[in-house]
Specification:
- The protein has 292 residues and is α+β, with helices and mostly antiparallel strands.
- It has one domain: Roll (2,3-Dihydroxybiphenyl 1,2-Dioxygenase, domain 1), CATH 3.10.180.10.
- Helix content is 15%, strand content 34%.
- It contains 4 helices and 16 strands.
- A hairpin with a 2-residue loop joins strand 14 and strand 15.
- Helix 1 runs antiparallel to helix 2.
- The termini are far apart.
- The mean pLDDT is 97.
- It binds fe (ii) ion.
- The site of fe (ii) ion (FE2) has 6 residues, from strand 1 and strand 13.
- The site of fe (ii) ion has 6 residues, from strand 1 and strand 13.
C-alpha cells in the first residue's frame, strides 16, 4: 500500500491581513523645507516624489510604498516614532555624521545602536532606521510600522477599537518591553500603541493615512458614534478619536485619513532612488531602486 503523503502544516491565519491593507503615509508639518530636504532626502536618503507636491509649500517623500507628507506651514511632532527600512543602510551613518553641520542648532540627533539607528529630525520627530533583514522581511524598503506612545492601561481598549470598529486584527503584546496593541495595517505593516509611564504630549494634529478594503463598514460604526471629523470626498473620510468600544470612552487622538481602494492614489507606484549614487562612484543603470 502506498504511503500517505504527509500534508504540510501551515499557519493559515498568520497570512490574514484584515481590513487595513496599507499604511501609506504619515503627515507632519515642517516649518522649513530646505532643512526638511537636508534631513529627509540628503541625510536619510529618502526620495522626493518627483510628480506630486513639487513646490515649496509641501513635499512628499517616498520610502518604498509609503510616504511622509511634509507641508511647509508649521511644526508637528508625532507622539512616538516611525520605523523605516532603508536602502543601503550601510551608508546611513556617514551621511548622518556629515549632516551635523547643516542641521546644527536644530533638534537633529542620532544614536547608532546594534541593529538600528535612532534619528531625531530637526523638529523632534523620532525615527528608527533599519536595514532590510529578517525582522521585517520581505520588506526591503518601506515603513513597517508607526509606534505611538499611549497612556498606561489603554492598549487593550485601542486593540478592541481597531478589531471591532476598523476590522483590523489587533494583538496585545509587547513593544520595547511595555504592553502594546499591535494592529495589522497591511502585509508587513503595523500600527503599534505602546503604553508609557511618561506624560503623553498634547495632540498637535499630525495624521496618518490608511487604505481599507471595507470602507463603508467602519464609516457606519464611526458615524454612529459621532466620530467622523471630515467627509473629505467620495473616497476618503477622517476620524481622530480612538475610543474604547466597550464604553465609548476616548482613549487616544490620532487623525486617520481613511481611503477606499477606489481612491485614485491607491497603489500608486512610487519612485525610489538609490541613495548610494555619488559622482565619484557612480554606477550607470543603478539610479532607481525597484520596490517589489
Ligand atoms: Fe494625508
Amino acid at each position: 500500500m502506498a504511503k500517505k503523503a504527509k500534508v504540510p502544516q501551515y499557519d493559515r491565519a498568520s497570512e490574514d491581513v484584515g481590513n487595513i491593507v496599507s499604511l501609506e503615509h504619515v503627515n507632519l508639518l515642517v516649518p522649513d523645507q530646505q532643512l526638511a530636504t537636508a534631513f529627509y532626502v540628503s541625510t536619510l536618503g529618502l526620495t522626493r516624489d518627483p510628480y506630486m507636491m513639487t513646490g515649496v509649500d509641501n513635499m512628499w517623500v517616498n520610502n518604498g510604498r509609503s510616504q511622509l507628507h511634509l507641508p511647509t506651514r508649521g511644526t508637528q511632532v508625532l507622539r512616538g516614532h516611525t520605523g523605516l527600512v532603508v536602502d543601503h543602510y550601510d551608508l546611513l551613518a556617514q551621511r548622518l555624521k556629515a549632516a551635523q553641520d547643516v542641521l546644527k542648532d536644530t533638534k537633529f540627533s542620532y544614536k547608532i545602536r546594534n541593529d538600528r539607528i535612532d534619528v531625531t529630525c530637526p523638529w523632534g520627530n523620532r525615527f528608527r532606521l533599519y536595514p532590510a533583514d529578517s525582522r521585517f522581511a520581505p520588506m526591503a524598503l518601506g515603513m513597517p510600522y508607526v509606534a505611538f506612545d499611549v497612556p498606561r492601561g489603554k492598549a487593550a481598549a485601542i486593540g478592541r477599537f481597531y478589531s471591532e470598529i476598523l476590522g483590523a486584527p489587533a494583538q496585545i503584546g509587547k513593544f520595547d518591553d511595555a504592553p502594546a496593541a499591535l494592529v495589522c495595517a497591511g502585509a508587513g505593516q503595523r500600527l503599534i500603541f505602546r503604553e508609557t509611564r511618561a506624560k503623553v504630549a498634547p495632540y498637535d494634529g499630525h495624521h496618518i493615512q490608511v487604505y481599507v478594503a471595507d470602507f463603508s463598514g467602519p464609516h457606519g460604526q464611526l458615524d454612529a458614534r459621532g466620530l467622523i471629523t471630515e467627509e473629505s470626498d467620495q473616497h476618503q473620510y477622517r476620524f481622530q478619536t480612538i475610543i474604547d468600544p466597550a464604553n465609548g470612552e476616548p482613549v487616544f487622538e490620532i487623525e486617520h485619513e481613511v481611503r477606499s481602494l477606489r481612491h485614485p492614489l491607491y497603489a500608486r507606484p512610487l519612485v525610489n532612488r538609490n541613495p548610494a549614487q555619488r559622482i565619484m562612484t557612480y554606477q550607470p543603470g543603478q539610479d532607481a531602486v525597484m520596490v517589489g
